[in-house]
Design goal:
The protein is α+β, with helices and mostly antiparallel strands. It folds into 2 domains: about 5-235, Hsp33 domain; about 240-290, CBS domain Like (Alpha-Beta Complex). The protein has helices at about 25-35, 35-55, 105-110, 140-150, 185-195, 200-205, 210-220, 240-250, 250-260, 280-290, and strands spanning about 5-10, 15-20, 60-70, 75-80, 85-90, 115-120, 130-135, 155-165, 170-180, 225-230, 235, 265-270, 275-280. The strands form 3 sheets. Strands 7-6-3-4-5-11 form a 6-stranded mixed beta sheet, with helices on one face. A 5-stranded antiparallel beta sheet has the order 8-9-2-1-10, with helices on both faces. It starts with a strand and ends with a helix. The structure holds zinc ion. Zinc ion binds near residues 238 and 272.
């Protein structure tokens, strides 16, 4: 099954939900980042969460999920766009913590203290930015906490990544169920019971469940209206122009010191690893551009 996500609403209009299958994307990220199993699990959960947040986006809208924790991974960054593309990184992808009782200690690797930030670029003048303190570092619970406290939407979130003994990601995905203000207490109890009874998302995916089946399980007892299905993939929009722009943005002083060293500068995109090399004459040119700036 190809990576994709599917949205649904209940016919009563009291719940909306989205489920995503991200196995291929997370395996691609693991390889690009050279990430350990626990770093892959953290990044894969964050990327899946970012996709779920972006599920209703249109046009050029995109979301960034940034987790800064006091755990050894330091930072997990995930970006998802309306067109179903994503990219992301872990600050210290080589950090490896062994599984405990068969579970990777993602919360310990991310940390329990820090910030969980969501930035939404919706094409407005200023991007929307919501920040909540990190609670568990497990990411799904932190995302639910963010949605409740920052966006005031009670949400159930499940995210998971499963790797085989050779570290290849063989199942990744998750789902998000949101309660709208019109829902009754009985309906909310029903959905909570459904979700409590569900296996882990990775168990469902390993059994071959599709996002559609996951949505049916989560919202059992409700008539569903399925909305659009979106294919998901990794894509890094980095380019030489953007990297040059970032160098110019460093300012004359910084560029001056690079030029004086008279060495080529080798910059690797932290998302996709693509190399960008600038020779001393090219740096000189960027310095001239920086000097022209007001
Ligand atoms: Zn790149």
């Amino acid at each position: 099954m190809r990576d994709h996500m599917l949205r649904a609403v209940t016919r009563c209009g009291h719940f909306r939900a989205v489920a995503a299958l991200t196995t291929g994307v997370v395996e691609t990220l693991r390889k690009l980042q050279g990430a350990s199993p626990v770093a892959t699990a953290a990044l894969g959960r964050a990327i899946t969460g970012a996709f779920l947040l972006a599920s209703e986006f249109k046009g050029r809208e995109r979301v960034v999920l940034q987790i800064l924790g006091d755990g050894p991974l330091q930072e997990v960054y995930a970006e998802a766009a309306a067109d179903g593309t994503c990219r992301g990184y872990v600050r210290r992808p080589g950090v490896d913590l062994p599984a405990q009782d068969g579970k990777l200690p993602v919360g310990e690797a991310v940390g329990q203290r820090g910030t969980f930030t969501v930035m939404k670029d919706l094409g407005l003048r200023e991007p929307y930015r919501g920040v909540v303190p990190l609670t568990t570092g497990e990411i799904a619970r932190d995302l639910a906490y963010y949605l409740l406290h920052s966006e005031q939407i009670p949400s159930a979130v499940a995210l998971g990544v499963y790797s085989d003994p050779c570290h290849t990601v063989t199942a990744a995905g998750g789902y998000l169920v949101q309660t709208l203000p019109s829902a009754t207490d009985e309906e909310i109890d029903q959905v909570e019971e459904n979700i409590r009874g569900m296996p882990l998302p990775t168990d469902l995916i390993r059994q071959g469940a599709s996002p559609k089946e996951i949505l049916r399980d989560a919202l059992q007892g409700f008539e569903l209206k399925f909305l659009e299905e979106k294919p998901l993939r990794f894509h890094c929009p980095c380019s030489r122009d953007r990297v040059a722009g970032a160098l110019v943005a460093l300012g004359s002083k910084e560029l001056e010191s690079l030029v004086q060293r008279n060495e080529r500068v080798d910059i690797r995109c932290e998302f996709c690893g693509r190399p960008y090399i600038f020779s001393p004459p090219q740096l000189q040119e960027l310095l001239a551009q920086a000097a022209e700036r007001p």
